[in-house]
Amino acid sequence: MQLSYWERKSFMSDFDTVIIGAGIVGISAALSLIEHDPSMKILIVERGFLPSGASTKNAGFACFGSVSELLDDFDKMGEESTLNLVARRFAGLAALRKRTGDDEIFFRPGGNYEVFKTDEEDFFSHCHDNIHRLNRLVKEITGVDDTYCICDKKIQNFGFSDVSHLILNKCEGRLDTGMMMQKLLTLARTAGIVFYFGAEVRQIEDESTKVTLRLQSEYYVEAKQLIVATNGFARQLLPELEVFPARNQVLVTHPYKNMKLDSCFHYDLGYFYWREIDGRILLGGGRNLFPDTEYTDSLSINPDIQEHLVQMLKTWITPHEFPGIDMQWSGILGIGKVKFPIIKQISENVIVAVRMGGMGVALGTLAGHEAAELMLGISTARTTDVVS
Description:
alpha/beta
C-alpha cells in the first residue's frame, strides 16, 4: 500500500528524534528529551500493539540485588564494579518513582526475601558470613545500616516446606507493572510524544544528515537522530552489539483460598522469583536450567520449565494448596557477558541503550535518561560546530 503525499509529510518525516522501543528505556529517553526541550518532535515506534519486550511482562519487582547475587557478582565482576551497578539500579528505581509517583505505579516498600532450602546450608552459611560486609558496603548506596538481615522466624508465616532460612533486603519493594507502563505512556502522550504501535523496523539506514527506518509494507520514517532501545531484540537491527536475547517464563495461578504469602521472594541467585498478586501467585524464572534453548528471542513457552515451576509450587512454595495455573507467558531479556547496560553513541546520528540484564525496572529510567543526554550532547556539538 502506498502512502499519500499528506501521510508522508505529516506522519512519516520531520521528526527530531525517533526511538525504537516503547518500553521503560525508550519512553524514559523520550521524556528526558522533551523535558530538556518541549518543542522537540519525538516519535516512538514499537513492533507490537503493546510494548513487546520485558517492560510489560516482568514480575514487578523493585529490586537491586540479593545477598547471593551480589556475592556471585563480586566473584565475576569484582567488588567495585558490582557496587557501581547496584548504585545505578538503586538510583534508577528512585528516578522511576520520582517521575511517576508511588501511588500511580502501586509501589509498595517492605522488602524482598531471599529463600534458602534445607539442603543449602553451606550456601546459606557463605551468605550469612558476608552479610555484615555487604551491609557496610551498600550503606553508602541505601543509607541504611542493615539493608540485609536474617528473618528465619518468618518462614512459618509463609507456609513453605523444606525451607530453612530467609534473608530480607529491606530496601527493595514491588510495584504494578501494568500501572507503571500506563503511567509512562500517559506522561509521554501528554508531553506530545507520538507513538506508532505495530510498526516493526526492518532496516536502519544511517545517513550523514538523517536516519531512515524501513518498516513493513515498504513504509519508512525519517528523523534527524535515532535511539535504539529494544534491549533483547537489538541484535536483529544491530548484530554487532554484544547483547543477547534470553527468554524468561512466568506463570500466574488461579486465586488461593488460603493465601499465606504477602511479599516478594528470590531463589537460586535470583533465577527464580515469586510474589502474591490479587490473591494469586506469580512465579517466574528458570532459564538457567536450559541455557541451550533459552538464549532465544522466541516468545514461546518451554514446557519443561513450566513443569519445573509447577512442581516448585506443589512441593515447597505452597504445599498446602495448589489452585492450578491460570495463565503463562514469556518475556525477552537483554543480557551479555557483563551486567552493565550498553549506552553509547555508535554513529553520528545513532545512540543505543540496551542490555538491561533482567533489571529493566531498576535500570530503565536511568538508562533512558543517559541515552537522552548523549543525544543532546551530539546536538550541542553540532550547534557548536556550525557556530564556530
